[in-house]
Amino acid sequence: MRRAFPLGSLDCRPMRRLPLLLVAALVWGLVLALIALVLVAPLPSVDDSAPAGLRRVLLGESHEGRPIKAYRLGDPASENVVLVVGCIHGNECAGKAVITALKKRPAPKGVKIWMIEALNPDGAAAGTRQNARGVDLNRNFPRKWRRQGQRWSTYYSGPRRASEKETRHAMRFAEEIRPDVTIWYHQPLALVDRSGGRRAVQRRYADLVGLPLKRLDPLPGTATRWQNHRFDNSTSFVVELPGGAMSARSARVHARAVVTVGKM
Ligand SMILES: [Zn+2]
Fold first, then answer.
1. What total number of domains does the chain contain?
2. 184 CA distance to ligand 1 centroid (A)?
């Protein structure tokens, strides 16, 4: 049997659906906005209008949810920006003592110093070189990244470039603060590795702390390599401290050297 107004009933349908479609669109919009909020995680809002003195920002969390924090010291208005990272390999964390020493100093003038005590807090807690996923973070940066090793092997690069949260936190933070000089502490070779950037800065640091300046073979996926390539006029280098804990006196000498080269 034929229906009286087959087309009419069809025509009505979009009209009845309209509010439903609107609601669906709204809900989708909200969902997408939420996803965007989570993905584009808020950059640590670096507010340089704050007065001099210690200031803390949260870069994000490690794989196991430990906070990765940065502290700022010194002159917030200064254009000389330094970043020091006390610990990237969790079993080479003596450099954290340099940060402790820096915090105890009176706020230096003419330089702004950002300090990350541990970029790899999970590794530091477990006493492992790698992060909690068994990745060597200093082979995980994107510049000249190369797949090597496997989970928990010494130099495991991770499954792909910048696959690790910790790596991405460091990259985002460097993009944000654009350090002129970055120092990454490692152990136990007792030398300053001429890693790239301005040689004079690395020479000076080595002289001030009494370590030899040497040039180790450049490695794939290191933090210094990425920074020195990514940023013009950036000097990012490795300080290999001796093995074992650092004396308070030695930490003070390094802290002074950080401030000095930060003004170069
Ligand atoms: Zn190391």
1. 1
2. 9
Question: Where in the sequence is the domain holding 185, given as residue range(s)?
Answer: 46-262
Q: Residue 218 Cα, ligand 1 centroid: separation in angstroms?
A: 13
For residue 155, tell me if it sits in a domain. Answer: yes
* pLDDT at residue 125 in the model: 98
Query: Is residue 229 a part of any domain in this protein?
Result: yes
Q: CATH no. for residue 144?
A: 3.40.630.10
Rounded to the nearest whole angstrom, what is the distance from the C-alpha of residue 155 to the centroid of ligand 1?
10
Give 58's strand partners: 69
Q: How far is the CA of 263 from the centre of ligand 1 (A)?
A: 26
pTM: 0.82
183 Cα to the center of ligand 1, angstroms: 12
Rounded distance from Cα 84 to ligand 1 centre (Å): 14
CB 95 within 8 A of CB 196: no
What is the per-residue pLDDT across 34-88, written as a single tens digit (0 to 9) for each?
555 544 444 555 655 455 567 899 999 999 999 999 999 999 999 999 999 999 9
Quote the ligand 1 centre to 192 CA distance (angstroms).
12
Separation of alpha carbons 60 and 107, rounded Å = 26
Largest Cα–Cα separation, the chain: 100
Secondary structure class of 131 (helix, strand, coil): coil
Parallel, antiparallel, or unpaired: how do β-strands 189-193 and 213-214 relate? Answer: parallel
Task: List the chain residues with pLDDT less than 70.
Answer: 1-19, 21-23, 27, 29-53
Q: How far is the CA of 225 from the centre of ligand 1 (A)?
A: 14
